[in-house]
Amino acid sequence: MRYSELRELVQDVFGPLGTTLVRDQVLGGLEDRTAEQALADGEEPRRVWRALCDAMDVPEARRWGSVERGRRPGQ
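^ thats the sequence. predicted structure below, dont judge the formating
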């Protein structure tokens, strides 16, 4: 996953709240860092995305965005 894909998914799945979540939500799955801090520390975007989805209880079916985006799980 690329950083640009992560940004697109954040917007698609969380909408306007996404930017705030990335900046402010402390994630236990990322050693109590925010997604923004973890990315700045060099964490893989895919790991950051999974931790954010886990923390926000995003159902597996929604984790890869809307059907309109044409994404499939694992992409």
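The longest helix spans residues 3-14.
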